[in-house]
Amino acid sequence: MNKKAIKKILAFVKLLKAPAKMMPYIIALVIGIIRRITDNDDAVLVDLKEQGFVCRKSEQIVGGCGSPAVAVCSNGSVAVAFACTRVKENTLVSSICLMRSSDPKQIASAGKRYVVTTPLQIGNVTLTQTPQGLLLGWRTRSNAYLHYPSRLEGSVLNTFKANNTAAATLLSAEERQGGIHYALIPDNGEEIKEIYEAPALFSQSAAVLSGGEILWLGVKDGKALAYRTQNVCKGFALVGTVPEIETGRTYSHAGVVKLKNGRVLAVLCSSGELFASYSDDMGVRWTVPKPLDIKGTAPSLSVREDGVVSLSFVESDKKFAIRSSINKDGESEWCKVRLLVSSVGDNSRRPYTVSVGDSFFTTSRIRFCGEKESSILYTLWKPLKEDYDPVLEAQLAKESKKKKRGRKKKDAIQ
Description:
Blueprint: H1 3-15, H2 23-38, E1 47-55, E2 65-72, E3 78-88, E4 91-101, E5 113-118, E6 121-130, E7 133-141, H3 154-169, H4 173-176, E8 178-185, E9 195-197, E10 207-208, E11 214-220, E12 223-229, E13 237-241, E14 253-258, E15 264-270, E16 273-279, E17 290-295, E18 297-303, E19 309-314, E20 321-327, E21 338-342, E22 349-356, E23 359-366, E24 375-382, H5 390-413
Helix pairs in contact: 1-2
């Protein structure tokens, strides 16, 4: 689509008789469509069941929210945790909000519970259901990174900044610099009793192994390290290291999941490319990572009851969309990359996926239209059947070959 065509579309939008307050949303929608067309984004959409917001900017959450994580609880309900910026005692604070719902499609109406609050910036939230309760992980950074809500009056903004600085000085010098943490949220609803220092940066869920042990794959100094524990509160022990792809190449993200056959699969990100590695001894030894021929960051893995594995990620070259790929058992070939979340804003980040029944449930951060504060989006979806059904896959392949033979025969006659 050339510039002339784009100008015509925008001119048409201006002629629409819509309320003035709706114009930014309409224009943003058109821009999103133009982006997809001009970027040759022809990825097929997954079988989308429902999409909606978990949380958006409000009077309570003035600075928006981000870094979502999701887990299926021991009672079958869905829990979503995310970082949000809100006002507390005339100070802008960062909190981790936890919401639970027996129906994932009703998560937006669930009550909010703030389980962690700090004057520092919170990010990289993770959530895993373990035999001991919900394992919550997060990272804190200096309050210099804290996002201040847009369109604040100067006097209000200065008051917040002064109060935030004062609140941060109450922390130790080490705490003010930020760190990587984890805690256990008991299933009985009790508050967090103690916060622990994490040994590495974890960006996705841990894997609960057959014996109840918890395997967590993190990144530290560019290396992918495997940690294991039987009791979350007593800490994690380093048990293995994923081999380097090649000398000098580092990892930035790592996700891990236990396959239906008990094998452990890890997907790692290095320089915007995704790689897969396997372990047959609960994370002690790993195969040399092999490229998936997929460009992306922030990989998230999930396994459905039938063994189908979902990989969701942000495609490096198309930052306003989140993609997915399916593997029938975690060890076969990965299927075609599909479109999972499409945004009109250049701000889709951090997909986090779990399986719910025969579907998948993905949370992600998004800036809706022209908003400066981000929101949390949920997407309930199924993979396309031809991506994991071997019978249908064979049938489609047979039909495709038949069509090719027909075209060749027709060309020969002509």
